[in-house]
């Protein structure tokens, strides 16, 4: 097994929640529920190519973290 194989990240998009921002290149910034390396799903915000094979760096949030963000935003005028 090569170093590349050991470092490869496995992911499964369990639910596509929505596109935050489309780009003219066909990529989209999306909010999805993703399982990384077989772990429980997390909310995930990142840019994806149209086939969902390549991605940018992004941010993942546990459900409790997403709930906290939603509460913080409820108290603000966005």
UniProtKB/TrEMBL annotation:
InterPro entries given for it? PC4_C
GO-annotated molecular function: DNA binding
Q: Name one GO biological process term.
A: regulation of DNA-templated transcription
What region holds the Transcriptional coactivator p15 (PC4) C-terminal domain?
25-70
Under what name is this protein listed?
Answer: Transcriptional coactivator p15 (PC4) C-terminal domain-containing protein
The source's domain of life comes to: Bacteria
Coiled-coil annotated spans? none
């Amino acid at each position: 097994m090569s170093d590349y194989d050991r470092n490869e990240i496995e992911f499964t998009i369990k639910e596509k929640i929505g596109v935050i921002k489309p780009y003219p290149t066909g990529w989209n910034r999306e909010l999805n529920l993703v399982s990384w390396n077989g772990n429980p799903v997390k909310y995930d915000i990142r840019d994806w190519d149209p086939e969902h094979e390549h991605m940018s760096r992004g941010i993942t949030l546990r459900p409790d973290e997403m709930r906290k963000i939603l509460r913080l935003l409820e108290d603000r005028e966005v």
